[in-house]
Design goal:
The complex is a heterodimer of chains A (454) and B (102).
Chain A lengths: L1 H18 L3 H21 L4 E3 L4 E3 L4 H17 L3 H4 L4 H20 L3 H19 L6 H32 L4 H9 L7 H17 L9 H7 L2 H25 L5 H24 L4 H18 L5 H31 L12 H4 L1 H15 L5 H15 L3 H25 L13 H19 L6
Antiparallel strand pairs in A: 1-2
Helix pairs in contact in A: 1-2, 1-5, 2-3, 3-5, 3-11, 3-14, 5-6, 5-11, 6-7, 6-11, 7-8, 7-9, 7-10, 9-12, 10-11, 10-13, 11-13, 11-14, 12-13, 12-18, 13-14, 14-16, 14-17, 14-19, 16-18, 16-19, 17-18, 17-19
Chain B lengths: L5 H21 L3 H26 L3 H31 L13
Helix pairs in contact in B: 1-2, 2-3
The chains are: A mainly alpha (454), B mainly alpha (102).
Chain lengths: 454, 102
């Protein structure tokens, strides 16, 4: 809760510091505040409900906040200098970064549909702007416009869903919605049913699940790499956290219908995401499809009753985000070298930069779900719980598609270790190296001791 | 509200919302798409206020203020994106914006 104040304040302060042209100070201040708040959240747990029960911080939410702030810090340090590369004013970029972080926190703590809507909009409006960060690039401008049009369209649908739910239950509070809707027999209120489905599609849009995924590849490919990394990790994780809270706290009672629709969405998402990723030649586009597929796996956790699903989605989101940030970071270095947005850019990376190649290989194997890395236990947890709860067919589909998915990750690993003498050495800065190592070591540590995350 | 039943509000806003969706799907001009999205949001506002009045619960009306606020913020950002596109491309036809496949 205090983090909402802290980061809103930080955003405003950095805008003012921008007027005084103190770019360096803004960066150090933001890094420092992120570090301090991360320190605070690991020592003091957030507890209580705020703004008249609009936000609720409980034991289940605390680990999520830790993950969000940690990812925010990693992202900030990894892409520390990007502002200047894209001639993006540091002050405005940092302020938007802080505001999006606030949105992510609001979405995670949400206990009221009003706050869910506001949080999602805080995130989206910030992203519309920074998606156009590389304004000289036609693709970046196009990504911004497409994201904006699609995003606000989905907002309308999401809002109609909220209105229908409000019309039936007379409240925006999740606990009230649960109480009222559990008194209504299944299928007797078409408005409630429609409202749930509309909210489901609005959120599925933000999480880029399949029938609503069409914006993802274009926006991920067109946006500057650091923005894509932000969307794929922190933003996606927070939307999934909102998903769990909303559907487990409020809509579990209208279960059958949304469970069936979610089942269908997940099956389509994992299949289409992995299969389409197979024949991509652009690296960012491939990661976009891979992020669609991973969203599908994470959504499998939403089908499971509340308590285990929090932990397994959290674990999956963390392991996926760490791997993803590392990959985007390394790709960003290649991009700075002037390499094209293609898988071929990774050819022969191991020759001059064995360090980067090994780190990327570990991250990729975590995404496949190979045992030494955290991705294995992340997938194992989610699949086991879905299996226990009787979703046998879905688990079978997920297993087959994750096997298909292994091909395109392995292709990149193969390309990196092909010897090619024409490759130049890439210089890696110290902060970048530190964070990438921390991320990869965490991936391995969580892969060996998965109990740590509990 | 008199004798008008809630159903009529439901029909009216559904029609407005559907018109908005139709506009988004068929029009190619970015500004008109933006207007259609606004129509969708206003249909939602109307329905929200109607529900709120019928149930005698004010929280729905408060929510409408939030929607208006967010819609205004969204339009501000959206129009500046459209202006940026127009400056670089000289057109806001979304069919011409196809550097990447949709």
């Amino acid at each position: 809760m205090n983090y909402i104040y802290i980061f809103t304040g930080l955003g405003v302060v950095s805008l003012f510091l921008g007027l005084l042209e103190k770019e360096k100070l803004i960066k150090y201040l933001t890094g420092f505040v992120l570090l301090i708040s991360l320190g605070i959240i690991f020592t003091l747990d957030e507890k209580g409900s705020y703004f008249n029960q609009m936000l609720l911080a409980d034991d289940l939410v605390n680990p999520m906040l830790k993950v969000l702030l940690f990812l925010g810090l990693c992202h900030f340090i990894l892409f520390y200098n990007t502002g200047e590369e894209f001639k993006l004013p540091t002050a405005e970029y940092t302020a938007l970064f802080c505001f999006i972080l606030v949105g992510a926190i609001v979405v995670t703590l949400e206990f009221n549909l009003v706050m869910l809507f506001l949080g999602i909009e805080i995130i989206s409006i910030g992203l519309y702007i920074i998606a156009a960060g590389n304004i000289q690039d036609e693709k970046s401008r196009e990504a911004s416009l497409k994201y904006f049009l699609m995003g606000s369209f989905s907002t309308g649908i999401f809002l109609l869903g909220i209105t229908f739910i409000y019309g039936v239950t007379g409240s925006f509070l999740l606990s009230d919605i649960k109480t009222v809707s559990s008194g209504i027999p299944e299928g007797s209120s078409p408005l409630l049913l429609l409202g749930t489905l509309l909210i489901l599609s609005g959120l599925a849009f933000k999480a880029s699940a399949v029938p609503f995924h069409f914006w993802t590849p274009d926006v991920y490919q067109g946006s500057p790499t650091h923005v894509t990394a932000f969307m794929a990790t922190l933003v996606k994780a927070s939307v999934l956290f909102a998903f769990i809270r909303l559907f487990n706290q409020a809509f579990l009672v209208t279960s059958q219908t949304w469970q069936n629709s979610l089942w269908l969405i997940i099956a389509l998402t994992v299949t289409l995401g992995n299969v389409t990723a197979l024949y991509q030649t652009s690296f960012k586009r491939m990661l976009a499809y891979s992020s669609i597929a991973h969203a599908g796996y994470m959504l499998m956790g939403v089908l499971v009753p509340e308590d285990p699903s929090y932990k397994s989605i959290l674990f999956y989101a963390l392991s996926y985000s760490l791997a993803s940030l590392t990959l985007f970071g390394i790709y960003f270095l290649l991009e700075k070298k002037g390499k094209a947005d293609a898988l071929e850019s990774f050819r022969g990376l191991a020759k001059q930069n064995p360090e980067l190649a090994v780190l990327a290989a570990i991250s990729l194997s975590s995404m496949i779900g190979l045992p030494p890395a955290a991705g294995f236990f992340a997938k194992l947890n989610i699949f086991t719980q879905a299996f226990i709860n009787g979703y046998t067919l879905l688990v079978a589909i997920a297993l087959i598609t994750s096997l298909i998915g292994a091909f395109y990750y392995l292709r990149v690993i193969g390309l990196m270790f092909k010897m090619d003498n024409s490759v130049e050495k890439i210089h890696v800065g110290l902060p970048f190296r530190l964070i990438v190592w921390v991320q990869v070591i965490l991936l391995i540590v969580f892969g060996i001791f998965p109990a740590l995350i509990q | 509200m008199g004798s008008i039943s809630i159903n009529y509000y439901l029909y009216l806003s559904s029609i407005l919302f559907a018109l908005g969706i139709l506009g988004v799907l068929t029009r190619r001009n970015a500004i008109i798409i933006l207007m259609s999205i606004e129509l969708m949001l206003n249909a939602v506002n109307l329905l929200m206020v109607a529900f709120s009045a019928f149930m005698g619960d004010s929280s729905g009306q408060i929510f409408v203020f939030f929607i208006m606020l967010v819609a205004a913020a969204e339009v501000t950002v959206g129009l500046s994106i459209v202006v940026m596109i127009y400056k670089h491309n000289g057109s806001i036809d979304i069919n011409l914006i196809d550097k990447m496949k949709w």
